[in-house]
Amino acid sequence: CRGRRGRRRVRAGCFMRYSDKRFFPANATVDLAAYLRSGDILGATELQGPTSFYYHDLKVATNNFSEKNKLGEGGFGDVFKGLLKNGKTVAVKRLTVMQTSRAKADFESEVKLISNVHHRNLVRLLGCSRKGSECLLVYEYMANNSLDKFLFGERRGTLNWKQRFNIIVGMARGLAYLHEEFHVCIIHRDIKSSNVLLDDDFQPKIADFGLARLLPDDHSHLSTKFAGTLGYTAPEYAIHGQLSEKVDTYSFGVEIISGRKSNDTKLEPETQYLLESAWKLYENENLISLVDESLDREEYKPEEVKKIIEIALLCTQSVVASRPTMSEVVVLLLSRNSSELQPTRPTFIDSTSRVRGETSSSSSSSASRATVSISQFSAR
Q: CA distances (Å), 328 to each of 169, 183, 204, 246, 331, in order?
């Protein structure tokens, strides 16, 4: 180390750091003495339960869940801005659970699981509160709200290319953690820009993960309860109910670059979804036309943007097994390798649930050349 007192190295999916000083403050460590004495060394790594908040305190913090404090509406309930007694600003999600012992048990176990998910690109669940059938979830507060406000809302055009690229990579890393690095595979089922929040530094954090049913660790399965948004949802899930982590892969990426909603049906010259439009432009070797017009052309290189869109098309291939894993997507995004990507045709689902293009619900189908070419990489 040649006398250096500290240094760090960062690569895709890998971080190494050394120093002669303490990395974390003393109050951020776990005292293993009790576990060593009892012989239960694994006890230090057990899941910790979420912080329990008093319902009344959260009611006061959100000004009785007033419209003025309302941040937005999600698939699982309304979200309110809250100011706790200690001065900390939080986001409070208000949702209702069924009045059955099984529903309560499932909810409590899932909340405990979610509260132990810690990643820089995932919104952290701080705690919860229950009163009767009503349940409140307390999350960290994101000052810049959701990504969709910057893509199609009042703040459209304020994100530059570098920020957008960092958001794409951050989303991929967050999903890779949920799918492959947490001890249970968590499938989001509803990845879209309104479920991606931005912090003060415009770092993306995926929200609403883990509230849908968790995937068993042995195999993909059929789910009778659909949780997704048409236009973003993989056809094998929307049509056949087959759920795997590749459902999230499908929903990832394309709409971020385009700057318009994935289920936009107001495209010329004919009614078509964004994915179908992107594929036609790919076939005509004109992907650059898909780029959001609000982006400054001086900020990006056409070949760089073309590569990002091709990666997005890899994620939407009809054959489930042909789609890369999210850790492979991270490697592709960060790779400087200019090798040509060759996605196969995706499947399109319109607002009347008509399917255009071929689809496959099989996760055992042969992979495309593109997937084979990246199979040796890992970004875990």
A: 11, 19, 19, 12, 5
Q: What angle do CA 73, 77, 79 make, to 5 degrees?
A: 55
Q: Please compute the mean of the pLDDT values over residues 302-321 and round it to a whole number.
A: 90
Residue 148 annotated as catalytic? no
Say which amino acid occupies 248: D
Contact criterion met (CB below 8 Å) for 173 and 330 = yes
Report the predicted TM-score, pTM, of the whole model to 2 decimal places: 0.76
- Percent of the chain's residues with pLDDT above 70: 66
What domains appear along the chain, each with residue ranges and CATH number? Answer: 6-45 (no CATH), 51-140 (3.30.200.20), 148-373 (1.10.510.10)
DSSP characters over 92-140: EEEEE--SSHHHHHHHHHHHHHHTT---TTBPPEEEEEEETTEEEEEEE
pLDDT at position 57: 95
Q: What is the DSSP letter of 346?
A: B
Quick one: tokens of 43?
A: 């006890």
The residue with greater pLDDT, 73 or 342, is 342
**Is the per-residue pLDDT at 206 higher than 60?**
yes
Q: Is 93 annotated as a binding residue?
A: yes
**Active-site residue identified among 78, 106, 148, 190:** 190
